[in-house]
Structure prediction request, 234 residues.
Amino acid sequence: GESVGLHLPTLSVQEGDNSIINCAYSNSASDYFIWYKQESGKGPQFIIDIRSNMDKRQGQRVTVLLNKTVKHLSLQIAATQPGDSAVYFCAEKGGSTLGRLYFGRGTQLTVWP
Amino acid sequence: DGGITQSPKYLFRKEGQNVTLSCEQNLNHDAMYWYRQDPGQGLRLIYYSQIVNDFQKGDIAEGYSVSREKKESFPLTVTSAQKNPTAFYLCASSIRLTGTEGLAGTKNIQYFGAGTRLSVL
Prediction:
């Protein structure tokens, strides 16, 4: 079956440092991946996505890297700010399903001043 | 203002009672979803609907029921059969993927509401 997991449940960084959040997936047929940010008591917000035919995609201060060989996804946040403190989830769309997303457990990112 | 509205923000259920969580969207999306989130865990799919008058069970549908009579609305009922209903419930919507779109790496961003926190009295 499909599963999405994270290597680290928590990550603490100092303000201004770069953050890297990792995600492993098991379904080699997954063709689309999303990163969400969830602040405490709120719903997840879309950050960035990537199709399986790409290795890298950049947004504003964020970069997603996809390594299909080892089924690994990462989210890099440049110059991390206190407002980046949240839980970050990766999600995958399995290639055999009609739009359904499978979510990982999440990583709690804490940014210290 | 386009988006997804969930209500109420907080809800309390007495034992043996059914409660209904509201989810309304004005994004003109065909597909809608209900997820349950427990502390320190990811999102688990309860039910989803790809079109009006049609819905499918997700991974944890037992003790829940839904309806999809209108495109904009996808209410979730937590029945008395759900013995551990305390959780954060999230509703989402997206475009509907059909046929080869589901297999072609087509973007499928799900947009979420602010959630309803359900507790048992």
Notes: Chain B touches chain A through 34 residues (CB under 8 Å). Chain B is about 0% helix and 45% strand.
